[in-house]
Amino acid sequence: MKIFYSALSPFVRKTMIVAEELGIADRIERLPAAANPVNRDRNIIPFNPLGQVPTLITDDEQVLFDSKVICEYLNTTFKGKLFGDDTTRFRLLTDHAAADGVIAASLLVRYELLARPEALRWNEWVDGQTDKITTGLQYFEDKAQALYDRIDIVTITLACAFDYLDLRLPDYQWQKRFPGLKAWYDKFSVRESIARTKPQ
């Protein structure tokens, strides 16, 4: 398998944590990519018209994107249990969507502050996306105790969200806002798959 890879992408990281947990990370060749919302990576587009990472090329040359699809493919193909069972699947998928939404809002804030010229920045947009981060994380703060002793697509995605916020939006200071999530993540973050993939 091959994956268009960017080390700082939280969505790429999510797929690689899934691969680590399934014991198949060494079977995935990492193809360097420079996905950008403005200067698009033309090497990706023949495989993924959106030109985004992650994009996975399977051993039988299927092309899969985005991270939600890739993670489900890896979990199904390699007999994982990261998406729950018949009784928990849709709860996990819903919480996965919420955690993914936090990452997406974080990326949109980052793009507004990084890619848009300062004179054209829309502060209300930044405020709206930041509020989405806050309400999304409050959703998980309210049930932080239920995250302990779990390794699944939700806890993996939250880990990616927290480390991306630390890396790209450190002034947000999520740890001070959400002490229950901080206490959980302090324990979860020492997991080998999380520590090994943490962006530097």
UniProtKB/TrEMBL annotation:
Which PROSITE patterns did the record assign?
GST_NTER
Q: What's a GO cellular component annotated to this UniProt protein?
A: cytoplasm
GST N-terminal domain location, by residue?
1-82
**Record's Pfam families?**
GST_C_2, GST_N_2
Molecular-function GO terms, alphabetical:
transferase activity
| InterPro entries recorded | Glutathione-S-Trfase_C_sf, Glutathione_S-Trfase_N, GST_Omega/HSP26, Thioredoxin-like_sf
Which keywords, in A-to-Z order, does the entry hold? Answer: Transferase
- Superkingdom of this protein's organism: Bacteria
Name recorded for this polypeptide: Putative glutathione S-transferase
Q: Which organism is it from?
A: Advenella mimigardefordensis (strain DSM 17166 / LMG 22922 / DPN7)
Q: What is the lineage of its organism?
A: Bacteria, Pseudomonadati, Pseudomonadota, Betaproteobacteria, Burkholderiales
